[in-house]
Known about the structure:
The protein is 68% helix and 0% strand. By secondary structure, it is mainly α. The chain has a domain at 38-81. The longest helix is centred in the middle third of the chain and has 32 residues, at 31-62. The model has no long low-confidence stretch (mean pLDDT 80).
Amino acid sequence: MLSSIKSSMKKPSYVYQPIEKFGEGLTTNRPWNVKALQEVELLNGRVAMLGFMFALIGELLTGKGILGQLLWIAGWFLGRV
């Protein structure tokens, strides 16, 4: 009976990718990973440049450095300003 069940079972037509360690897929040299990481890093760089620009504009407007601005915003949020 067991042999009839085994013979009736078909092998799947698809093949699973091997299981990878956590984060290993991001460091392998696969075309889709390289392109995706390049686009993510490009976006991260642009957002960082915008953040730095707004920090400089805030410093020009308030006369306070970045830490002073953050403390002022925290005080405003907590209702102390």
